[in-house]
Amino acid sequence: MRRKGIMCAEVCDATCRALSEQTNLDEAAVRVQVEWCRTVSLECARVFDEHPGAEESARACRACARACTDFLVTLG
């Protein structure tokens, strides 16, 4: 579980950095990055759901996945 949480944090961080620092990304690259972040976040939320005491982490992962989904909608 710990390894999965670290991976999730790294993917989310990489996505945030890519979106905030890279102004020349094409839409397809942005979409792939954000979809990857959403997928990893949902997978991590499911893992955290199986462990008592990890509810807050599961909620954070789902919130990240929702933000990714909302962002993807803006891309059309």
Largest sheet: none
Strand residues, percent: under 5%
H/E element sequence: HHH
Shape field: elongated
Mean pLDDT: 90
Count of DSSP H/I helices: 3
Helix content: over 70%
The tally of beta strands, per DSSP, is 0
Counted up, domains total 1
Outline the structure in words:
The structure is a single chain. This protein is an all-alpha fold and 76 residues long. It has one domain (1-75). 84% of the residues lie in helices and 0% in strands. α2 (27-49) runs antiparallel to α3.
Task: Summarize the model shown.
This protein is mainly α. It has helices spanning 2-21, 27-49, 55-75.
Give a quick set of tags describing it.
elongated, 76 residues, mainly alpha, 3 helices, 0% strand
Could you give the topology of this structure?
Layout: H1 2-21, H2 27-49, H3 55-75
Helix pairs in contact: 1-2, 2-3
